Amino acid sequence: MDRKEKAVEFHHKGYDCAQAVACAFSDVLDMDETMIFRAMEGFGFGMGAGKCTCGAISGAVMTLSLLSSKGYQEGHLSKPETYARCSRMVDAFTSLHHGFHMCSDLKGKECSCDQYIMDAVECVEKML
Known about the structure:
It is built from 8 helices and no strands. By secondary structure, the protein is mostly helical. It has one domain. The longest helix is centred in the last third of the chain and has 18 residues, at 79-96.
């Protein structure tokens, strides 16, 4: 089973879009899936059901952040590199969906949440 299929399977089990995307990378992140699930719970349905940024994007951003950040080291912050990487991923996702990134805009469009989840996973995989 590939990572996109795994993420969709998580979604069908009841994971929200953010959880499905981030948990699909638990092996790469070397993190406990339960902790990722808990951390991402508030990002579903557009951040706390507010229909803001798509949860699939939020899960992808968290994944890239964890992979990119070097943490705080005296005299060096990795934020510029992490922000740039996440920005490229968001741009790639939105280009697939006619410039949309808000859950409220994406819901009911030509795609389903499963497609948004697969696209977010693919965007992250391209950046690994």
